[in-house]
Amino acid sequence: MLSKDEIKQLSDEILRLKKEKDALILAHYYQRLEIQQVADIFGDSFELSKKAKLAENRLVVFCGVRFMAESAKILNPDKKVLLPAVDAGCPMADMVTPEDVLELRAKYPEAAVVCYVNSSAETKAVSDICCTSSNAIKVVKSLPNRQIIFVPDKNLGAYVAKFVPEKEFILHSGFCPTHRNITAAEVDKAKAEHPNALFAVHPECEDEVVAKADFVGSTSQIIDYCVNTDAPEFIIGTEVGVVDRLAYYHPEKKYHLLTPYLVCPNMKKTELSDVLAVLRDESNEVIMTQEEIEAAKAPLERMVAIK
Ligand code: 13P
Ligand code: SF4
Fold first, then answer.
1. Which of 72, 76, 165, 183 is most exposed, with the fewest beta carbons within 10 Å of its own?
2. Residues enclosing ligand 2, CB less than 6 A?
3. Per-residue pLDDT reduced to its tens digit, 234-292
4. What is the Å distance from ligand 2's center to 98 Cα?
């Protein structure tokens, strides 16, 4: 754990180098608070994709996990994209392969493939359109196909399916280990401890947990809900970074993390010293071939184009 002085020293040096090197720092809401505080832009995965696409700086430093930095590179390939924590992956993204998708396509030739952005560039390349947790319902509704192959998150897929009953969903079996672990009994316990709190949850959680929520949404949508709803207290069913952010920037309300285990170990790999190192050395560049970029571009661009 860094002291306040160490955080200040590292942050000052990052802010200085950021200017000198013409870098834009993007940070996901699951990043440590001190990382969010040196970022130019913070947000959920959809907002960060949109901002990365528009970035004009020479360097883009992506404080998040690999699939997010890859999406930034695919959407803005002329930029040098740096990933401070080089081994920050997403276990859910590794649960589906392009071969899985091709197999499902062969089985359901009429279906459209909707690929959650938490996936590799190779898997995106064999999909029709990407989605995030903030736009998945809109994405699915935009498609003419009656059958939808949804990869890799079975929970997000099942959640979306409820809003589009006219379509048939073929769900892959992937999941987020951090969100999947939450149980309905833990929700009941938190509600009993905080009877006046509203419960907001990420759709990567299991159905029985989502069913108990007052609000379901992406990380940004959860933050907006807590800030804009006229209630003083919330139970948060997503990663601790969201609670850290809310508690710091909106201290007038109370936030309870549903369980102490809501921590994404990969998101927490990024330290201020990593951000400083990649800025200084321009290291950990996301390298993709032109073919890889071209192959994954269309599904991501289609998602970003949806209003
Ligand atoms: P958001 O799309 O809400 O940013 O979520 C990304 C993610 O990885 C959730 O686990
Ligand atoms: Fe992946 Fe889950 Fe971490 Fe999100 S919280 S990056 S889905 S492991």
1. 165
2. 65, 90-92, 118, 176-179, 204, 239, 264, 266-267
3. 999 999 999 999 999 999 999 999 999 999 999 999 999 999 999 999 999 999 999 99
4. 20
Task: Output the CA 56–ligand 1 centroid distance in Å.
Answer: 25
99 CB neighbour count, 10 Å cutoff: 11
pLDDT of residue 131: 97
Ligand 1: residues within 6 Å at CB? 44-45, 118, 132-134, 176, 202, 204, 218-219
- Crossing angle for the helix pair 272-281 and 4-20, to the nearest 10 degrees: 30
pLDDT at 307 over 80: no
Contact 10, 272 (CB under 8 A): yes
Whole-prediction pTM: 0.96
Among the atoms of ligand 2, which is closest to the Cα of residue 239? 5
Assess contact for 266 and 209: CB atoms under 8 A: no
